[in-house]
Amino acid sequence: MWRLARAWALLEVCDAVTGCDLSPEMLTHARATAPKAAFLEAPAEALPLSDSSVALVTTFMAFHWFDQAKFLAEVQRVLEPGGYLMICHHKSLAALRDQPAFRTWADGFYANYPTPPRNPSELELSDVERFGFTLVAHASFEDEFWMTGAEIAQYISTQSNIIAKVEQAGGHPRAD
After folding, report:
1. Per-residue confidence in pLDDT tens, the chain, 176 aa
2. Is residue 38 part of a domain?
3. Geometric angle at alpha carbon 164, from 106 and 19, rounded to 5°
4. CATH number, domain containing residue 47
5. Residue 174: per-residue pLDDT
6. Over 65-134, what HEC string results?
7. What pLDDT does 94 receive?
8. Vertex 73, ends 68 and 78: CA angle to 5°?
9. Residue 2 falls within a domain, yes or no?
10. How many domains, the chain?
11. 17 in any annotated domain
């Protein structure tokens, strides 16, 4: 789906791509849609990779769920000298072109599914130095993407606030 577009983009510029996730469902989907990449079931804080074995570690829409100190130490372990860590995060504006009512619906829908507690989405500047990293760049941008109605429903059903509420209620989310 949408997050996997990042794996496809990395495959265009990297010799090899290995993705890690804790969700077997996400890994099944990833393997089906990006077959040239390798995918492993593993936590970000304990990557099944050798010391100094990768040039780039990326995380997209996940850093806020990690034990950040353990993750950053793990990144230091697996990065080769001169390697890079890229932390990406975005906040959906939840708007559809030519559908202004969607914003109103989305605001009302999400009010029923509060976000579970989590860590900051961005790396604190004090942690950059504390963990031995050098800040190369910090950027903000708009990330426009297209989804069908079915893809929007699938995307919403993977969000942690929706999953937590569904598990708490023992039912299925309603997107109406």
Report:
1. 334 455 677 888 888 899 998 888 778 878 888 888 899 999 999 999 999 999 999 998 888 889 999 999 999 999 999 999 999 876 665 566 677 787 787 778 877 877 777 887 788 888 888 888 888 888 876 666 677 777 777 777 777 777 777 788 776 544 44
2. no
3. 95
4. 3.40.50.150
5. 47
6. HCCHHHHHHHHHHHEEEEEEEEEECCCCCCCECCECHHHHHHHHHHHCCCCCCCCCCCCCHHHHHHCCCC
7. 57
8. 120
9. no
10. 1
11. no
Query: Token match 């780039």: residue?
Result: 56
User: Please, what's the b/e burial string for 12-48 (b: 16 or more CB within 10 A of its CB; e: otherwise)?
Assistant: eeeeebbbbbeeeebbebbeeebeebebeebbbeebe
Kindly state whether residue 130 falls inside one of the protein's structural domains. yes
DSSP 25: H
Distance CA 77, CA 69 (A): 13
Q: What's the domain range around 82? A: 43-91+119-152
Residue with the two structure tokens 């983009």: 9
DSSP structural state of residue 60 = E
